[in-house]
Design goal:
Blueprint (H helix, E strand, L loop, with lengths): L3 H36 L2 H17 L1 H4 L5 H20 L22 H9 L2 H12 L4 H8 L3 H18 L11
Organism: Rugosimonospora africana
GO molecular function, one term: DNA binding
Protein name: RNA polymerase sigma-70 factor, ECF subfamily
Length: 177
């Protein structure tokens, strides 16, 4: 009987590893895309998402049971960004050297759209990215951001209106590519 228990544990760990690898492969690009859009810095977003996925692996038994584990990863990354910002807010910015100025951004969005998204208030940017890039419904977005569903709808409406004003040719479908 004692020889069976270690084998069962090894099998459970291997199953968790496979499930997590599948989840990571399916979700990593979407999560990174959302975090890049919210924080506005690709290198920082990569670090935040990597840290969030590490935390997801460490808590995988709980995380994989969630309705929307991608939302959990994004929320952890964004919470880490708030902590990072608090630690670094007194640093002097030397410029936007890490942002592309023309063409298409590395994650496939037009640079004009990226710039417009960066100008949105943070909450509106979060709502737009979760609703449209991760294709979350309003209720899941509300739970992820810790706000009422009506507030999510209001932020989404205002954000899309601002994007349409700034980019007359804007089509919501551009965000769901």
């Amino acid at each position: 009987m004692q020889g069976i228990l270690p084998l069962v544990r090894v099998q459970a760990v291997e199953r968790d590893r496979c499930e997590f690898a599948e989840f990571y492969a399916a979700a990593a690009d979407d999560c990174l895309r959302v975090v890049v859009l919210v924080v506005g810095n690709r290198q920082l977003a990569e670090d935040l998402v990597a840290e969030a996925f590490t935390k997801a692996w460490l808590s995988w038994r709980k995380v994989h049971q969630l309705d929307e584990p991608r939302a959990w990863v994004v929320r952890v990354a964004l919470n880490s960004h708030v902590s990072w910002w608090r630690r670094h807010r007194r640093e002097v910015a030397l410029g936007d050297h890490d942002r592309a100025t023309t063409g298409t951004e590395p994650h496939g969005l037009d640079s004009a759209l990226m710039a417009a998204l960066r100008r949105l208030p943070v909450r509106q940017r979060e709502v737009v990215t979760l609703r449209l890039l991760l294709d979350m419904d309003t209720a899941t977005t509300a739970r992820t951001l810790g706000m009422p569903t009506g507030t999510v709808a209001s932020h989404l409406h205002r954000a899309l209106a601002a994007l349409r004003r700034e980019i007359p040719s804007f089509n919501d479908q551009e965000l769901t590519r």
